[in-house]
Amino acid sequence: MRRRAAQSRLDPKGQKADLGLMATVIDTLGGPRPRHPEKQSRPDTPILRKPEWLRVRAPGSPGYNATRSIVKEHGLTTVCEEAACPNIGECWSQSHATMMIMGEICTRACAFCNVSTGKPLPLDPTEPARVADAVRKMGLKHVVITSVDRDDLADGGGAHFAAVVHAIRAAAPGTTIEILTPDFLRKAPSAAEIVIDSKPDVFNHNLETVPRLYLSIRPGARYYHSLRLLERVKERDPNQFTKSGLMVGLGEAKEEVMQVMDDMRSAGVDFLTIGQYLQPTRKHAAIDRFVTPDEFKAYEEIARAKGFLMVSASPLTRSSHHAGEDFARLKAARIAKDAAA
Hints:
Helix content: 25-40%
Radius of gyration: 22 Å
Order of helices and strands: HEHHEEEHEHEHEHHEHEHEH
Structural class: alpha/beta
Distance between the termini: 71 Å
Number of helices: 11
Strand content: 5-15%
């Protein structure tokens, strides 16, 4: 028996059980689709001239080219390229690259991010092995794995993330692993739990900005959900290091940044990174101001006083910048703290 449609408050006389005639949409644009289709109708925002302390040399060293060759040979995507990271020349010249898994198309449309937005392709089951092989060939002592958001997947990509961690452990057992995950918003608790249980050395999830700016800067996310994710990591595995990052220069107040620090410490976060927001295009959120190196130094001192084991705060700080060296310092800080207790 055909079910009768529920009466709509917006259409009281509507009685049909279907949606009527369907339309077929034909894409006649031709050529490549825009990288950020959801931002095309936005007015252009001004791009401020970078101060001296934010200018970096263009990449092109032999080490950079060698890293790029390995990445391309294995068909990998890196957040270094997709997010237009200013540190790519320095990191790749030292054989440091942050692998971005689960494709290069994100289901979110954050106002600060340069990663493409759209409908992602299905997951590639060969990706964990390819990532692990690249890590082995590059001889990495520490690797950072991040991903796009995959709201289209039932588990947000949690099982795939865990598979990558396990594959790296098997191929390069001496490599320490840091993951930078999505928020698994509106997914079952098991989605994040399978990632936590894969036991990366560092579990990173960035809060990105202060709560007041979420609606305009990170509209697809929820501040307290992200905070709770970091807290759950500590509840499930107290020995796992947790890490989170903030961008500044978006219009936040110093007092708001300090409140986020307190929230992170309440969630047990060990490592805080703070860096300058840099506007990818004129369609992205505008830079409110450039935060000075002295202000970053002050943020670092405040954060250390609040009890973070490790703090990295500078204009060019990014989540994975100097991640290997910072991980060694993070471990040393925990050992020193435990010894003093």
